[in-house]
Q: What sequence folds into this?
């Protein structure tokens, strides 16, 4: 009998969050890349709908999946994938408010909520970190191009 294929660690992490009924939103650069931004990043950033004082639940999940807790909100999964979590996002409103305006994407075989490009820009601008500010021109260009393509598609479908 063939061996059962292993579940990718990111997929297992997302599955564990779902099983624990912990909602999340993909934010940051990976969310921007998913929407066409021509940038790269080495980690996945998730906004977790969990009170900050309950972060140990995430540590338990990561350890159960044979991952490493690098810092209270930074994890390395068993294949080296880096996952960063936040409990509040700079420049954004509440988790529930932002969730209503996300779009559904697919990541590691799971449906995930993805923060819109306009809100990613707002968050990066509000953070004020040099690395975030440096990406703003590319993100803004991507948003403009995306808006133009949507308008063009809408006109041609009429």
A:
């Amino acid at each position: 009998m063939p061996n059962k294929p292993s579940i990718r660690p990111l997929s297992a992490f997302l599955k564990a969050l779902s099983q624990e009924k912990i909602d999340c939103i993909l934010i940051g650069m990976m969310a921007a890349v998913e929407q066409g931004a021509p940038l790269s990043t080495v980690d996945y950033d998730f906004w977790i709908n969990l009170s900050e004082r309950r972060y140990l639940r995430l540590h338990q999940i990561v350890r159960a999946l044979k991952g490493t807790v690098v810092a209270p909100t930074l994890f390395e999964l068993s294949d080296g994938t880096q996952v960063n979590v936040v409990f509040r996002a700079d420049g954004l409103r509440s988790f529930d408010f932002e969730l209503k305006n996300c779009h559904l994407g697919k990541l590691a075989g799971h449906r995930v909520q993805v923060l819109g490009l306009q809100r990613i820009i707002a968050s990066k601008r509000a953070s004020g970190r040099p690395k975030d500010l440096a990406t703003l021109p590319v993100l803004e260009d991507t948003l403009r191009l995306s808006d133009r393509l949507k308008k063009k598609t809408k006109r041609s479908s009429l």
Notes: Residues 130-157 form the longest helix (28 residues). The helical segments are 9-19, 28-34, 56-64, 95-100, 117-127, 130-157.
